[in-house]
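SEVERITY: medium
COMPONENT: batch folding queue
REPORTER: lab tech (J.R.)

DESCRIPTION
The queue accepted two submissions in a row. Attaching both inputs and their returned structure tokens so the on-call engineer can compare them side by side.

ATTACHMENT 1
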Amino acid sequence: MKIYKLKKTDRPSEPSANLSIMPFGKYKGQPIDTIPDRYIIMLADDFGQDNQGILPDNRFNFKVPLEIREKAREELKKRGYKKKGSRWERD
């Protein structure tokens, strides 16, 4: 059995978040304003966590951080989208 030792780093305990860059997922490292609309809509809606008709054990169990959801909603508004009911639609 191998034993691994963790290296100490000089990183701060909480990394400073740059909300203009996508921190995870398919578009990790890309500016949020260059990400396609459909992906931004998924982020703004937390990957459809509120969808009814889907059994709880079949849902995607990842929660989008609140800061990213808010940034995604701001970006959608910049692109001309409005929340109508449970959908995002362009004006």
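ATTACHMENT 2
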Amino acid sequence: MGEPGLSFMAKFTCVENTTDKVSTTALLQAVTRLLVVLVCAGLFPLASGADEQEVLFRETFNDLGNWQTVIFPKIKKHSTYSIEKNGDRHYLRAESKASASAIVYKISFNAYEYPRAAWRWKVSNVYAKGDARTKEGDDYPIRVYIMFEYDPEHAGAFERMQYGLMKMLYGEYPPHSSLSYVWANKDDPETMVTSPYTDKAKMVFLEKGIGRVGTWQDEAVNMVEDYQKAFGARPPARARIAIMNDSDNTGESSISYMEYIEVFK
């Protein structure tokens, strides 16, 4: 794409060398006009967002082929995940009605090589009974989980025994720990709290309360830095991403949307 620009620049240089009627100022003005034309034509694009080579994946939700559904055996009603279209745009639509289930991206990744994530989301409402500090209120209209995988090579003897038993019961290792980036139901003085279910899960409040309900919001996080703030330690290397809208504890309902999500360096 750069060749047309170089060709025109060479022609301008030749003009300056062969005639004394073209001043340096005129040349600079001509080059500036050329760059404007090239940018408008898409031949000299301006930088926007992360470099493509630095992006591990960018999901724009044309379909759900890259995701698998995860249900919880003790929860009978499951949230629904579908694709909604508006012109040439596609969105993930996540709906819960006193329900819970999640979708998980099929491929894990190295969080140290790709520590950042970004997405755009929107919620129809928050939950009146939602409370981040109680099990009864542990519901959110949307959340992005970063689930860090258990690594037996870096575990102590007691932890290996614990996870070994859980693998025997469930057929695979459960996550070692997780960050849950949430749209919180209420304004809260804190930005990060421990899950009421386990100290292995930390909730990070990116949006709070009703102030921005119904509007698209862009989020960007550094998973490794947030993990270190939350747990005071470095995270396991391998991680996976999940998305969930749940309301099984509060018994309420909501619809939320996500336009894209990406993981990058």
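NOTES FROM REPORTER
Residues 150 and 176 are 4 Å apart (CA to CA).
No errors were logged for either attachment.
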